[in-house]
Write the structure tokens for this entry.
Amino acid sequence: MYREEIKVLDCTVRDGGLINDHYFDDEFVREVYKAVSAAGVDYIEIGYRCSRSIMSPDKFGKWKFCDEDDIRRAIDGIESDTKISVMVDVGRVEKKDILPCKDSVIDMIRVATYVKDIDKAIDLVNEAVEKGYEGTVNIMAISRAADNELDEALAQLEAESRASVVYIVDSFGALYSESVDHLVSKYKKFLKTKEVGMHAHNNQQLGYANTIQGIIDGCNFVDGTIYGIGRAAGNCPLELLIGFLKNPKFDLRPVMEVISREFLPLRQKIEWGYLIPYAITAMFNEHPRVAMALRKTPDKDNYREFLESMSAMEVD
């Protein structure tokens, strides 16, 4: 589908960092940036901007904090028109850690929030826009949001926030096409001056399909990751997404090259992608953390027992 206004954001390093606590080396990040830039992707999310006073640097790698010097070192000398994004979590960043945009290599700040914290998200995104950045609000765990609460949050975002995009985030990979259709329609009903974005997870192998549904329904900002890398079952694969969009500005070859060179070897070291336990958690609209814990036990392939344990949790 060719639609010129659609913008693609690659969040390989940020979402992929949820598997290894953000301990990617500089060369890997550099290779991803180089590939995404050569492919013509609009944005790359290079990690989180968390405050060291809140999140310990002893427990996480550098891409949890995205210091300006680290980003500059990773992108140095690479010709690129791709804009750089970082994500900030409500409650995990202090405003003083968001520099004025003129002093930063970052172009966009994406604020991740739950519906209950929408006031704090608006405060953060308005701070970022005031400092010169593009700003988005990404509403996580959307499959758990109550209709009336989401309505109120969207109305408040339209009235009070300076975000240019508000994202549907299927954190648990629990959505189906009908749910995406409903949510995009709801977002568009309230957000008259903002774009709608789609960030899909692949727990039920629907990350790509749900992203396509979002595009059909009018989402103009869509996320993907190279080879679908991301927490648990991962995300909508970037290579499928840009192949679908048929925009001549995109070039698939650099993405295919970096998959062969970097991602196939990495896949031998860390696990991501569709697995039955992740599908089961999505069916029950649960965070995949219990499935991730299961994968570290001797019973990691006992799918029936895991299904029964999730069923018992639902009954309780």
Q: What stands out?
A: Residues 253-267 form the longest helix (15 residues).
